[in-house]
Amino acid sequence: MEYVVASLILLAVLVVGAIGLVVPRLRRRELPPPTGGSTTTLERPPAEVAEPTLPTLPDELPPLVQAPTIERPEPTAGRLVRLRARLSRSQSLLGKGLLSVLSRDHLDEDAWEEIEDSLISADVGVEATQALVARLRERVRVLGTRTVAEVREQLAEELVAALEPGMDRSLRTAPHDGRPAVVLVVGVNGAGKTTTCGKVARVLIADGRTVLLGAADTFRAAAAEQLATWGERVGAETVRGPEGGDPASVAFDAVRRGIDTGVDTVLIDTAGRLQNKVGLMDELGKVKRVVEKHGPVDETLLILDATTGQNGLEQARVFTDVVDVTGVVLTKLDGTAKGGIVIAVQNKLGIPVKLVGLGEGPDDLAPFEPAAFVEALLGTDA
Ligand SMILES: Nc1nc2c(ncn2[C@@H]2O[C@H](COP(=O)(O)OP(=O)(O)OP(=O)(O)O)[C@@H](O)[C@H]2O)c(=O)[nH]1
């Protein structure tokens, strides 16, 4: 009997033990998933454990730092001819307008007045227009010119003559006396100085020269940035100073660096604030004086915005009074119907137009050639 009782007790203990083990597990399974609360733990899905795979490497690894791509600017020869379509606005006014008058059977007083008006509207300037029309009238009278083609040819010749084709338009950018040529770029804000500096650097590099840029426009921080970007594109170094720093000291450092590195040409971009002439004179005069401690400035290019027309001419005078301008760059000729401004600029300032800007593209700057320019304006072979 004792055995029976002991066996029953043992059995009961085992049963209770088994229930104690199984019930909490079942309860745990039945618990609802957590809903909301301060933290949410994301559980991984019961993943099949994937075999770790090694990434496959490409045959050639890319370099960690990409070297900037150096561009190869277009050659400068024949650029004006290639870009002639950019003068279409001027061409409609001067070329098409004039030629329709010239094609009349008889060139009476009214016709000559219309010709004068077209030239004045194209910003050729009153004096230059009167002189040009007087010469053309005389030729037509003396030679008894009859056909449109002949008058057109004579007009083209007169326009070319008014552009003084004998002027020296070469840029003095060749190194000499064991140092680089120094080019100062001046002009009012927004005329296109920085852009032109960049484009001139490309022109020189296209012609096989080495160039260093000096960002002496410390007035506008973005100008230095913009110039450095132009330089990087063609592999030219840019010397910059702190924003608002002394432009003359940046210009001085740029020339010294150019001498040390043995480049052919140093191009210096300057600021062109025109709020008062005295301030401008002081600043530009100082830049020039300080740069000349290294040797004379070889070329001073005045950048003029063609779209400002006769106003631009007034501004130009301020600069020609301050620095010895050796050449004019007329920018934005693509954006105006007043291409005749080239004649007015030369006529009034007596300084050759050496380059013309015909667009915002990096190679939209062309050496100025009077005959090709007139050809583009008239839309004919001059
Ligand atoms: N259409 C056209 N735009 C031009 C030409 N040259 C320059 N520009 C534009 O004119 C604007 C002013 O040019 P910038 O070179 O910044 O002028 P900036 O004289 O240096 O001006 P600041 O730095 O303020 O003194 C820019 O948007 C140029 O892209 C050109 O020949 N044709």
How is the topology of this model organized?
Elements (H helix, E strand, L loop, with lengths): L1 H29 L48 H4 L5 H15 L6 H13 L4 H18 L4 H15 L18 E6 L6 H14 L4 E6 L4 H14 L2 E3 L7 H15 L3 E6 L6 H15 L7 E7 L3 H14 L4 E5 L9 H9 L3 E5 L7 E3 L2 H9 L4
Parallel strand pairs: 1-4, 1-5, 2-3, 2-4, 5-6, 6-7
Antiparallel strand pairs: 7-8
The site of guanosine-5'-triphosphate has 21 residues, from helix 7.
Explain how this protein is built.
With 382 residues, this protein is an alpha/beta fold. The protein contains 13 helices and eight strands. It has an eight-stranded mixed β-sheet, sandwiched between helices. It is elongated and about 65 Å long. The model is unreliable at 16-52 (pLDDT under 50). The structure holds guanosine-5'-triphosphate.
How many extended strands?
Answer: 8
Give the overall pLDDT as a whole number. Answer: 81
What strand order characterises the main sheet?
A: 3-2-4-1-5-6-7-8
- Tally of contiguous helical segments: 13
| Rg, nearest Å | 38 Å
Q: Which structural class is indicated by helix and strand composition?
A: alpha/beta
For the largest beta-sheet, the strand count, sense and barrel status come to: 8 strands, mixed
